[in-house]
Amino acid sequence: MININIHKTLQGARGEMNLDINLSIKEHEFVTLSGKSGSGKTTLLRVLAGLEDAKGEIKVANKIWLDKKNSLAVQKRDIGFVFQDYALFPNMSVEENLLYVNKDKTLAKQLLELTQLTAMAKRLPNKLSGGQKQRVSLCRAFMARPKLLLMDEPLSALDVDMRLKLQHDILALHKKFGTTTIMVSHDPSEIYKLSNRVVILENGKITQDGTPKNILLKTQGSQKFSLIGELLEIIQADIIFIAVVAIGQQIVEVVLDEKEASNFHTGDKVQVSTKAFAPMLSLAH
Amino acid sequence: MNQLDLEPFLLSFKLASVVTIILFIIAIPVSWWLSRTTCRCKPFVEAVVSLPIVLPPSVLGFYILYALSYNSPIGAFFEETFGIKLVFNFTGLVIASCFYSFPFMVQPLQGGFESLNKNMLEASYIAGKSKLKTLWHVALPNIKPALLTALIITFAHTVGEFGVVLMVGGSIPNETKVASVAIYEMVEIMDYKMAHIYSAIMLGISFTVLFSVYLFNQRHAKRIGV
Description:
The complex is a heterodimer of chains A (about 280) and B (about 230).
Chain A (H helix, E strand, L loop, with lengths): L1 E11 L2 E11 L4 E5 L6 H9 L5 E6 L2 E4 L12 E4 L11 H8 L3 H10 L15 H13 L5 E5 L7 H18 L2 E5 L3 H7 L2 E6 L2 E6 L1 H5 L8 E13 L2 E8 L2 E7 L1 H4 L7 E6 L4 E5 L2
Parallel strand pairs in A: 3-8, 3-9, 6-7, 7-8
Antiparallel strand pairs in A: 1-2, 1-4, 4-5, 9-10, 11-12, 11-14, 12-13, 14-15
Helix pairs in contact in A: 2-4, 4-5
Chain B lengths: L6 H30 L5 H13 L2 H12 L4 H9 L8 H25 L3 H9 L4 H9 L4 H16 L3 H7 L9 H10 L3 H33 L2
Helix pairs in contact in B: 1-5, 1-8, 1-10, 2-5, 3-9, 5-8, 5-9, 6-7, 8-11, 10-11
């Protein structure tokens, strides 16, 4: 069980912000932190790691990491951390990067096999692709056999194919080592696949907390599907209007009548949903 | 005509070697601290460290001469307690050169440390390694070009100094008469031939040293793919 109750004042891009987090996480849980940039997700991870200080308490499996008097040093927290930019040691080979954490050669070999990196063991990080680097970073994080694994947008710098492969590796390692994992991510499919709990942060506060299905599924009432997109343009074609909407990587068209068209403006965040056959467009919240 | 006397060169290189080793040991903690600190006193420390770059060598030399001489408490203390004279001998030259060349060691190292990926250093702390271990195993090996630049520039700069050495050391053969001072004296007595030979040797050595540093840095950059 991990109990977090922390408070910290941050100097953000939009002035001062208070990070107030009260969160309990069960052992072996996979929690994703999501929310707009600047909402305090990364700071929360860094406070948990001991890289930044904060007021309050952090208790991990009856061990106190932070209270009024003490803050356990980052070196003593037994965590794994995966950075978005990999943060590998460029002067060490893949194998040395792992053994630097812990001299356990058997574990290093096993991790490299699991992530199909055995052939790369003697290479320096700059001879690896982005996906390979992040797999090394993942292996390195597990070398400490961490009770708590923290990942800060680990896959956001990678392309789609590589992400799928890494998602599989992350899940496999999380289960094999029985770690408790906290990940920052914005990718709904990734969150859905990996985590069993999603916590949404807004301006330093938790606004939603639940299962990925409850939080990510946007349909309400009789809606069959519902997608959030950005309105790019409204084109008039004779008496009807066509709204061009970007949803993820795709562009779709939705037909509107004149009255509907006058409600929308280019750049609006919109929700595309359907009840029966024709998709409908409405302003998204 | 004089015989080609290599003693001033040997003395210059001996001085430069000793100074480089001493400064390397002192500059690593100072530059590491400067690269990491958020202390409000940082600009002050940086200004003090960089002073020898802008100060006329005669000014620096004068202060050091005064501080080390028997007239000052420091000089008097060393002479009375340990029986060591600190001016007009090799020891005095080493102390003066350490002040004079300090920024040339600190600045490249500080720049190197500042260019390191902060996350990479944090990854080392998370791996349970102390700051000292991180410095030794992660930070230093990843600033090799800066390290080499700092060592070589400090060495070359010490070989090339003149004003401070003359002020603090004078020109005692085999003790404080380094190559630059020897050349000055040759010009004074109008022995232009020897001055030419000595100067050419200095020019050749200096160029070779700098060329090697920049060549290494170029190759290193290619190898690690910067």
